[in-house]
Design a protein that fits this description.
single chain; 214 residues; alpha/beta; TIM Barrel; 4-stranded parallel beta sheet; 9 strands; globular; binds 3-phosphoglyceric acid
């Protein structure tokens, strides 16, 4: 599927691959080789979390030097986070929870957002603001497969990206659910592999993840 940045939607972000990697980068020098390694393994939608002081610079580097990748910002918690991410070249945002302030700001900014939810009330708030593609976070800790199955009735129009506690061992179970479009996870971008510059291992992990059936 070709991705046209100007029309990118959160559904495009979810549908591009079975897994969205949740990336934590401490060194800007790692950003470009990591993005290239993931792209080589078939993963283009990259969530760079705003958990380190280097995160925005990493997004800028990927946006500038790896045009095949689509770098988004994770851990968006405030309107300021959303604005800074957009300025750094983020093409989408992911939040660990939901507020209308963040949801409405992202819409006004034109930044596709995957809002995080963990309860029915949060789903209803996000839906009131027009969001039907949501991140379920933290997925395993907050009820996992059973929770997603329970939501299929009242929230049958919502598509989820469960994130938190997902690995190659359980990803297929989540992806088999009709209300799951993709999963998120850090297992394909292990800290030790990034620190060691073991890009071949990350390409291999990405390749395995793209083989997961949906
Ligand atoms: C996170 O918050 O770090 C993400 O949800 C990823 O969780 P994971 O490390 O369990 O994949």
């Amino acid at each position: 599927m070709a991705v046209n940045d100007s029309k990118l939607t959160s559904l495009d972000v979810m549908r591009d691959a079975p897994v969205i990697p949740v990336i934590v980068l401490h060194d800007v020098a790692h950003a470009v080789p990591l993005a290239r390694a993931l792209v080589a393994g078939g993963i283009r939608m990259l969530e760079v979390t705003l958990r380190t002081p280097q995160a925005l610079a990493c997004m800028e580097a990927i946006a500038r030097e790896v045009p095949e990748a689509v770098a988004g910002a994770g851990t968006i918690r405030t309107v300021a986070d959303a604005k800074a991410s957009l300025s750094a070249g983020a093409k989408f945002g992911v939040s660990p929870g939901y507020t209308s302030a963040v949801g409405n700001a992202c819409r006004e900014l034109g930044l596709p957002l995957l809002p995080g939810v963990a309860t029915g009330s949060e789903i209803m708030m996000a839906q009131e603001d027009g969001y039907t593609e949501l991140k379920f976070f933290p997925a395993v800790q907050a009820g996992g497969l059973a929770m997603l199955k329970a939501w299929q009735g009242p929230f049958g129009d919502v598509r989820f990206c469960p994130t938190g506690g997902i690995s190659l061992a359980n990803a297929a179970d989540f992806l088999a659910l009709s209300n799951v479009a993709c999963v998120g996870g850090s297992w394909i971008v292990p800290t030790d592999a990034i620190q060691a510059g073991d890009w071949a291992r990350i390409t291999q992990l990405a390749r395995e993840a793209t083989q997961l059936a949906r």
